[in-house]
Amino acid sequence: MVSSFEKKLNQLNDSLVEVSLSETTKDRTTSVAPSNTATGIYVTIHGHFYQPPRENPYLDAIERQPSAAPNHDWNERILHECYRPNAFARILSERGELVGIANNFEYLSFNIGPTLMSWLERHDMEVYQKIIEADRKSCQR
Q1: Is position 13 within any domain?
Q2: Residue ranges making up the domain that contains 60
Q3: Contact 92, 98 (CB under 8 A)
Q4: Facing residues of 21 across strands?
Q5: Is residue 21 part of a domain?
Q6: Which parts of the chain are beta strand (E)?
Q7: 30-66: pLDDT as tens digits
Q8: pTM, rounded to two decimals
């Protein structure tokens, strides 16, 4: 016998989620009709992105941090492990082929500390601009 929880879970899994990829721009659009969520359950994912100041105040630079190897420091390491992969998330087919790129920041509730944003502006303008663009797009929805 199927429990009521399993029924609700199955209904939720059967809910319509539409993902369309534009052939020309590979932009990702995701929409879920509230009436199609069956159980009325919504999930919000919130990202709290923060890095403390790491600069040596006498040098006004971040010194090498061996524990962040192979990167120079932890800001750089987390950039490559978190911020950049989320700004350029790969969408793969069932066969593992790349079918598109999504900016996950467009679909997250998030906040970013000013120290981190200032660092991104200086060290990875592309990711910095993707985050600002995502914030603008999410406000328009």
Answers
A1: no
A2: 44-140
A3: yes
A4: 28
A5: no
A6: 18-21, 28-31, 46-49, 89-92, 98-102, 109-112
A7: 554 544 556 777 788 899 999 999 999 999 899 999 9
A8: 0.68
